Recover the amino acids of this structure.
């Protein structure tokens, strides 16, 4: 297991290089001179030339790429707009993104898994049909559009929750109230996909012969469902949750923009607006690395769920 973890962590190296190269190439296609945008109304040819020299915009493509990658890895990459180290700016915003993603995950798991299990046990019942109908809608509607609907309902119409902003850490009342709407909005797609997958996985497992045997021996139905069927159905469910959680960090870009949430996703959007190439570079790379780490954690969880799985 330890050797496998080291091997997967080493895969971060080509992932970082590949993502950074593609990202840097895309940034070069964006119109506009970052130095000219930064200067605004104070623009002069001399000032533009000075900033281009300071940030290396006059260098060839490959020189600028390796310089930016080296500065990012060493923590020396500077933001053009904010005038601070990129790693420090991202670090201040990462807490808000982690809070949003963590609460979204908790909400999704607490709602989706019980819903899927009950829908499978009560197949073709009114609960099953209604919950899967709602899940289909949840998959079809983008999370940011759901967020806009939530803002209208709970902030504009009922006026019970704030529509945007950051109210502090999640354990405070103000922080929790500001976190509820973006967290629920971000979790809708995961709730929908996980509940449908939980239902289908449970239905497949419940057809197995060993469950029929357990029933014939008089084992209680609750034990059959929770101990035998559900545990064996967990592998695809955990895979889906891991993939969805990793995708949440990308989807957070839109949700954070809709709710003015001060996370890394909104920071990346602002960096694009200001043509702050170092900050765009650092923000997207951090989100990409989080994606890889989350998938590694999912692989490790597999072993604890099913000891028959081993990585050599």
């Amino acid at each position: 297991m330890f050797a496998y973890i080291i091997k997967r962590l080493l895969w971060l190296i080509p992932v970082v290089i590949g993502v950074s190269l593609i990202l840097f190439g895309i940034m070069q296609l964006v119109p506009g001179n970052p130095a000219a945008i930064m200067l605004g109304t104070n623009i002069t040819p001399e000032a533009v030339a000075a900033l281009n020299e300071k940030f290396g915009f006059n260098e060839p493509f490959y020189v600028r790429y390796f310089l930016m990658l080296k500065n990012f890895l060493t923590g020396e990459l500077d933001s053009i707009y904010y005038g601070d180290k990129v790693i420090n700016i991202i670090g201040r915003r990462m807490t808000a993104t982690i809070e949003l993603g963590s609460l979204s995950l908790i909400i999704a798991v607490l709602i989706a898994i019980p819903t899927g299990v009950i829908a499978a046990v009560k197949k073709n019942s009114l609960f099953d049909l209604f919950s899967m109908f709602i899940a289909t809608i949840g998959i079809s509607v983008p999370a940011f559009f759901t967020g806009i609907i939530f803002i209208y309902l709970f902030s504009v119409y009922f006026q019970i929750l704030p529509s945007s902003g950051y109210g502090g850490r999640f354990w405070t009342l103000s922080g929790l109230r500001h976190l509820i709407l973006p967290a629920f909005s971000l979790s809708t797609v995961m709730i929908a996909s996980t509940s449908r997958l939980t239902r289908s996985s449970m239905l497949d497992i419940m057809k197995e012969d060993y469950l029929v045997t357990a029933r014939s021996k008089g084992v209680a139905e609750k034990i059959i469902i929770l101990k035998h069927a559900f545990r064996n159905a967990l592998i695809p469910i955990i895979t889906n949750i891991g993939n969805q959680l990793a995708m949440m960090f990308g989807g957070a870009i839109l949700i954070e923009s809709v709710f003015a949430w001060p996370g890394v996703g909104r920071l990346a959007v602002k960096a694009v607006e200001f043509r702050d190439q170092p900050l765009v570079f650092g923000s997207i790379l951090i989100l990409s690395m989080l994606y890889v780490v989350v998938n590694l954690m999912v692989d490790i969880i597999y072993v604890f769920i099913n000891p028959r799985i081993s990585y050599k």
Q: What stands out?
A: The mean pLDDT is 82.
